[in-house]
Design brief:
This protein has 158 residues and is mostly beta strands. The two termini are 23 Å apart. The chain has one helix and six strands, in the order αββββββ.
Length: 158
């Protein structure tokens, strides 16, 4: 819980919102915070489970998502559970579950005991949702990774 609070605070502190929201980037509609299971990077590829909570900026009900994050590129090392938080941008208001889908983009991270990472991903509903400008990632372990990332999210219906 402490890591989750730290990641959320980092997103707020960095002001992860569009500097000048335009039709291409959309408007900030909320924050997506994910817990990523720990694991071992296997040099060229890695795949880890994610459990996420999306909090709309409008103050609406939080939404839960489950899925996987996969990386293709250099990913060497061992990490414990990580917390990843993104500012979420869309062309306008979205319906519940709109973040469900596949996102792709670039990733980079470095961890020596504690570390940070950056991920820029685009996808979701008709490829109109953007998880950006970059994520804040907090994790522990020993790892270095860079390459292409894919994130798949399933909306958890209640």
């Amino acid at each position: 819980m402490r890591k989750l609070a730290l990641a959320a605070a980092a997103v707020a502190a960095l002001g992860l919102s569009a500097p000048a929201a335009d039709a291409k980037t959309g408007v900030k509609i909320g924050v997506l915070t994910c817990e990523i299971e720990g694991g071992v990077g296997l040099i060229l590829v890695s795949s880890k489970k994610v459990n996420c909570v999306y909090q709309p900026s409008s103050g609406g009900r939080p939404e839960r998502y489950e899925g996987r994050i996969r990386k293709l590129g250099v990913d060497i090392g061992v990490t414990n559970q990580a917390i990843l938080a993104w500012a979420v941008f869309a062309p306008g208001k979205t319906k519940r579950g709109a973040l469900e889908g596949t996102y792709v983009g670039a990733t980079a991270e470095a961890t020596v005991v504690a570390g940070l990472g950056a991920n820029v991903l685009i996808g979701g509903f008709k490829k109109t949702i953007s998880l950006q400008p970059l994520s804040v990632q907090v994790q522990t372990g020993l790892n270095v990774a860079a390459g292409v990332a894919g994130l798949y999210l399933d909306f958890v219906r209640r």
